[in-house]
Amino acid sequence: MIYNMHKYLILIVLMINNAYSQELVPPIQNFSPSNYVAASQNWDIALDDRGVVYTANNQGLLVYDGLSWEIFTLESQSIIRSVYPHSDRIYTGSYKEFGYWENLPDGDMAYNSLTPLMSEFNMQSDEFWEIISYKEAIYFRSFGAVYKYEGDRITKIKDVVSTALGVFQDKIILTLRKEGLAYLDNNELIPLKGDQKILDDINIIDIESKGDTLFIAGKESIYTYTNNRFQKFPDNRLNEILERSELNHIISISEDEIVIGTIKNGIVNYNLKTGQIQVFNRTSGLQNNTVLGMSYDKGRLWLALDKGVDMIDLKAPVRFYTDNTGELGAVYDIQKFDDDYYLASNTGVYSFSENNLNLIENAEDHTWNLEVIDGVLYANHNTGIYRIENDQFIPIEARTGSFSIKKLTDGSNRLLIANYTGLSLYNLDSKEISEVSSVNFPIKEVIIGDNSTLWAAHPYEGVYRITHDDFSNVQVEKISALGGKANFNPKLYELNKQIIIYVNEKWFQYNPFKADFEIFEELGEYSKSRLLFEENAEYVFSSSDDGSIIITDLKDEKIVIPTESLNNRLVRSNENFVKENDSIFYITLNDGFARLNLNQLKGEDSGQWISEPFIKEFSDLSNRYNLTETPVIPFKNSRNIVLKAGMPVSDAVNLKYRLDGEENIQGTLNNGMINLRNLEHGDYELTLTASGSNEDSSAVRKFHFSIAPPWYLSAWMKTIYVFLFIGLIFLIYWLNQLKLKKHQFQLEEKFEKEHAERLNRIEKERLMNEIDLKRKELANTTMMAAKKNEVLMEIQGELNKDKTKFSNQFRLKHIMNKINSAVKSKDEWKVFETNFNEVHEDFFKDVLDQYPKLTSKDLKLCSYLKMNLSSKEIAPLMGISVRGVEVHRYRLRKKMELDSDVNLTKFLIKNF
C-alpha cells in the first residue's frame, strides 16, 4: 500500500510581518493567477461528477482537471459571475448572458448561448449571480428576476429582487431583499410559514439547506429555520466572528459541520455538534481573505478568492505548523514535556504552547537534539549540553558542543554525552562532568552495547568500537570500512538488541560470534533509506532518493508520504519522526513541523477514492481528433503527437501511462501532457492508470489510435508494389530466358569454335604431318636423286678415265650424253620443284620478289640450301663438282649482296 499525499501541499503566506503564532492547519494548496494564467478575481466555483473544477473568472470559465488549468472566454469577453455543472453541461451566467458549455467530440469546449431564448424579456443590466437545478429544470437569478430553463425554453418566474436561491424541503426558496424568505408554488411566491420579524431589515446573503434546518446567512450573523420557526444562531462566539468578518457564503460539508466564507477573514469551519470553531485565513495559508465562492467534495474545500483559487483538505490526517517569520529555521527535533512542546532548530530551542512559539532565553544557536530523561528535558546545543526547566536554559557543560545524550544501563545514575570532541560522563548525583579518556574525536551517535562496550559513530570517519572497564582502561577500535568505501556519515541503530549500521546505502548487522559486521538482509529493500523510527515492528524510513517518508511493518503494509506532500520542507539528511502516542506523530520540517494522525492515515488508505483519468485532447501537427473514435493520423503529421489528459484531484498517487504497439513507451504524466515523437506507423493502445496507496485502488482509461503508413507503404502503393513485384518476376524470368538463350548461343558458338579449332588443329596436324611426310619424301627423293647422280657421275668419271679403251667412241659419247641427261634431267627438277613448292609454298616467288635478278640455276641452289643440304650433297643434284657448288654459292651471295660473315643457308631458312 503506497499512500499519496500530494494533495497535502501547503503554501503559507505571511499576512502580518510581525505575526509570530499560528495554529495547526490542514494542507492548503494555492493556485495563484500565475499558475492558471487568468484574472485574479474568481466569483464562483463548482465541481462536476468527475471532480473537474470550474471557476467563474473575470476572464471567462476557468477549468482545472487536476493536472492543468485552461481558460475559456466568452465572445463578448464578459466576466463570468456564476457556474453550475449539471448533467453533461456547464451552465454559466454573466452580464446579460446565460448559456452552457459542453465538450465537443475532440475534447474542446464550446459555448451555447441561451440568451436568444430571453429576447422577449426586458433585461436591463442583469447579471446572473446564481444557478441551481430542481427536478428537470435549471433556475438562475439576477438581482432583478428569477428564470427557469426547461425543455429548450426559458420562462421568467418573477420580477423580484432576490439575493439567494436554494432548495429546502422539496421547494424552491428565494430570499427577498429585506422581505424575508418565500417559496415558489406554481410560479407564485408564498412566504415561509412562521414569524419572520427577526429577519426584518436583514440583508440575506446566502441560504443552505441541511436536513430539516435551513441556514440563513445574513451579512453579520446566521439564522436558522426549523419547524416553522426562525431564530438567530445561538453560538454568540460564531456571530461575533461573523460580525467582524462580513459573511458572504455558507455551505454544509457534513452532518456536523458547516463552512462559512467571509469577505474579510477567510473561512470559518464550525462544528455544530461540538461548537469547535476553526478560522483559516491568509495567516493560515490562504492567498486572500475574501472568499467569493465555495464548493466541497470528498473532504476537499475549494475556494474562489478575490485573488486566486485555494483548496483545503479539511479531512487530511496531517496538520502543519509554519513559522512565517523565518526565525525558527530548520527543526531537528520536537519533544512534548510538561504538556508543552519544545522544538530544537538551527536557530535555537523554542517552546510551543497554545499555538504560540517562543524562543527560550539564551537558547539561541544550533540545537541538534532534545531528550527527556527521568523527567528532565535536555538539549544538545552547539555550545554544550543544557537542561530546560521552567523555560530556563540551564548549562550543564558549555566547554564544547554536543550531539546526543543517553542514560547508562549499568544502574549508575550517570548520563553519557556525545559531543564535538569525544564522550563525557555526567554524574546526576554529584553533578560532575568527566571526559572519557582515549576518545578524542567527535561522536555524533553512540549506542550502549553492554556495560563494557560502546559503539560510536564519527560524523566523517566511520564507526568505532569502544571497550572499557567502567570507563577505565578504555580501548578504541576503528571498524574497517564497510561496503568497500570510506564510511562517511554512518548511522548507528540498536534493533532488537542488535547493533545495526547504515552506511554507503547498505545495512550491516553485528555478528557477535564472528565479531564482525555482515549484510543485514532484512532491511535490504530499504538500501536507499535512513531509519527514523522503530517501535513494535513498525518502521519509519526516509528515502535518500526522493526524500519521501516510508512507514512499513516490513511485510504487507507500506505507506509512503512523498516529500511534495510536506511541501518539500523536510530537513534532508536530518529528518526526524517523533511519536506522541500510538496515533499522533510529528515530522520535523523547515520553518515548522507536521502533526500526523497515523490511524486516520491508515483509515483513509483503506477507503480511497481514485478519480478516473480522461483524455481531453489528442492532436498532431495540424489536426485535433475526435475522442469518441479511433483516430488515424497521417504519417507525415505523426512526428509530434500531443495528448492532454486530466485526473481530478483525488487520493491517487500518480498518473502513469503506457503505450503499447509498434513501439512501447511508459512513464509518469505530471503536467497533463504527453508528447509522442516519431512513432512508427501501426496500431497503438495508450493506457492511463491512476493508482492509489492500495494496490487494489486504481482507475484505468484506455485509448486507441493508429498511425497511417507513409504514402510509399499505403494500400494502393502496396497494390502497385504487388504488380511491380509480379512484373519484376516476369522481367527477371524474361531476362533469364534471354540470358539462358544467350548463354546457350555462346555455348553453341564456343562449341562450334572449339569444334572448328579442333578440326583446324586436326587439319593442321594432318597438313603438318603431310608436310613432314612430303618433307621427308622430298628429302628422300632428293637424296636418292643425289645418290643416283653421284653414281652416274662416278660412272661418267670412270668412263672418262678409260675412254681410250673403248673402241667405239661414238657409243661412248652417246653413253656419256645419256649420263649427263640423266644427271641434269629437267623432269627430275620439275618433280623436285613441285614437291618443294608443296613443302615450301611461295618460296621461289618470295625469293624472286626480293631478288629478281636470280637465275633458275640460282633458284635451284637456293632451294637446295633451304633444305639445309651441304655442297657435297648439292653437287650431284646440280651435276657439278663440289668446287663448282662453292663457286656458285659465292656468286649467289654476291647477287644477294650478303656480307661474308652471313651464313647463306641460315639466311634462306630464316627469311624464306
UniProtKB/TrEMBL annotation:
A Pfam family per the record: GerE
Residue ranges of every copy of the HTH luxR-type domain listed in the record: 851-908
Keywords: Membrane, Transmembrane, Transmembrane helix
Signal peptide: none
Keyword Transmembrane: yes
SUPFAM superfamilies assigned to the protein according to its UniProt record, in alphabetical order: C-terminal effector domain of the bipartite response regulators, Calcium-dependent phosphotriesterase
Record SMART domains: HTH_LUXR (SM00421)
Residues spanning the membrane: 711-735
InterPro entries the record matches: Ig-like_fold (IPR013783), Sig_transdc_resp-reg_C-effctor (IPR016032), Tscrpt_reg_LuxR_C (IPR000792), WD40/YVTN_repeat-like_dom_sf (IPR015943), WH-like_DNA-bd_sf (IPR036388)
Protein name (database record): LuxR C-terminal-related transcriptional regulator
Organism: Christiangramia sediminicola
Lineage: Bacteria, Pseudomonadati, Bacteroidota, Flavobacteriia, Flavobacteriales
